[in-house]
Structure formats: structure tokens, C-alpha cells
Amino acid sequence: MKSRDVVRLFFSTLLLGGVSTLLVSFFVKSSVYADYLNPFNWFEILGLLVFFITLGFVFSLISQMGFFAYLTVNQFALGIFRSYWPTIQIGLIIFALFDLVYFRYQRVENGSILIFILTAAALLIFSLLVASRKAKETNKKAFVPALFFMVVITSIEWVPGLRTNNGDYAWLMIIPLILCNTYQLLILHRLTKKK
Questions:
Q1: Are 63 and 181 spatial neighbours (Cβ–Cβ below 8 Å)?
Q2: pLDDT in tens, 57-112
Q3: Across the chain, which distance is largest between two alpha carbons, in Å?
Q4: Domain ranges of the chain
Q5: CB of 56 within 8 A of CB of 22?
Q6: Which residues make Cβ contacts (< 8 Å) with residue 86, sequence separation at least 6?
Q7: Residue 7, Cα to own-chain centre: how many angstroms?
Q8: 40 φ, ψ to 5°?
Q9: CB burial class (10 A; 0-12, 13-18, 19+) of residue 191?
């Protein structure tokens, strides 16, 4: 992959993170926007727009660091574990999904486990769809690594959002992370195929 493609991937992912976070903020933080719409305060609205776009850039950078870290770790793991690496990845996927449900539920004093199960199930279903598409566009061996990246790496990247007391930031963070991770995963083989 040429440096021009790396730069293009960086900036397009950065833009995706900023725009998606801004759009999600309209729904997740609508009450904050409403406070400055009546009476209309253009300076505060502009400040919110800049804040959420910048926050999206940060989420995009987290996603990109996770992506390139995974590409590096995957190569090392293939060299060390060889044919066992896909099996180890499946085990780590199961553990990450268990972690999203059980350990998060343990931290909540009053609440239903159902929301945690639904969150993990939604992440798994979306990841299965993305991994299937990646395998269809490349080869069948890409399914498990793509699923691993979408479930495990996204879960790790989401940790700062999960640790906040305000659930709004967890939702504000996961949507851009998923979109940026999906974009990077599905565009990489297109960038490298041209060569």
C-alpha cells in the first residue's frame, strides 16, 4: 500500500468518525442542543458542533490505532501460533462477549442483565455481517480475523466509553467506533488490490 493510500485512509476514517459522532450527538445529546435553541445561542451551538466533531476525531484515532495494532499483532500471532491462531481468536471472541455481559452487569447495582445481553448480541450480529462480507470479498479465511477485529478490538476500544457513569457517552462512542472499524476493514483489501 502506497503512502498516498495510507494518508487517504487516515483522513477518510477521520472524517467518518467526526461526522458520525456529530450525527449521533443530535440524538444522544439532544437535550444539550435544546438548551441552546431556546433562546437561540449560535455561539454555544457552534461550540457544541466543534466539540462533537473533535470528539469524533478522537474516536476515529482510537479506531485507527486499534486497526493498525491488530494488523501487527495478527502477523506476530500467525508466526507464533500458526494453525491454532483462528481457534484462539474464537476463544477470545467468546470471552469478549462474556465480558461485555457479565463483568459490566456486576458493576451495576440496580439494573437488568437484558440490556447487556442485547448490546453484546447486537455487536455480534453486526460483526458477523461485516465478517461475512469481508470473507465474500476476499477469501473464507478472512472470516475469523474479521470477526475477531470487529468484536474483540471494538470492545477494547470501547472501554473508555463503558467506564463512564453517563451511558450517553458509551453510545456516543460505540457508533463511530463500529463505523470506522467496519470502513477500515472493508476498504483495506480494495486499497491493496489495486497494486
A1: yes
A2: 999 999 999 999 999 999 999 999 989 999 999 999 999 999 999 888 877 767 78
A3: 63
A4: 59-193
A5: yes
A6: 141, 144, 145
A7: 20
A8: -70, 125
A9: middle
Residues 6+ apart with CB under 8 A from 137: 186, 189
| Residue 103 CA to its chain's centroid (Å) | 20
String of DSSP letters for 92-127: HHHHHHHIIIIIHHHH-SS--THHHHHHHHHHHHHH
Report the C-alpha gap between 1 and 95 in whole angstroms.
33
Q: Are 141 and 74 in contact (CB under 8 A)?
A: no
Locate 127 and state its grid cell.
Answer: 460483526
The cell for 41 is 445561542
> Is 8 exposed, middle or buried, given 0-12, 13-18 or 19+ CB atoms closer than 10 A?
middle
Cell reading at 52:
462533537
Partners of 40 in the β-ladder: 37
Check if the beta carbon of residue 130 is closer than 8 Å to that of residue 182.
yes
pLDDT tens digits for range 141-190: 999 999 999 999 999 999 988 887 767 888 899 999 999 999 999 999 88
Could you write out the DSSP letters of every residue in 2-22?
-HHHHHHHHHHHHHHHHHHHH
Task: Name the residue with cell 477469501.
Answer: 139
Cβ(90)–Cβ(152) below 8 Å: no
Alpha carbon distance 84, 24 (integer Å): 39
Cα separation, 57 vs 12, whole angstroms: 11
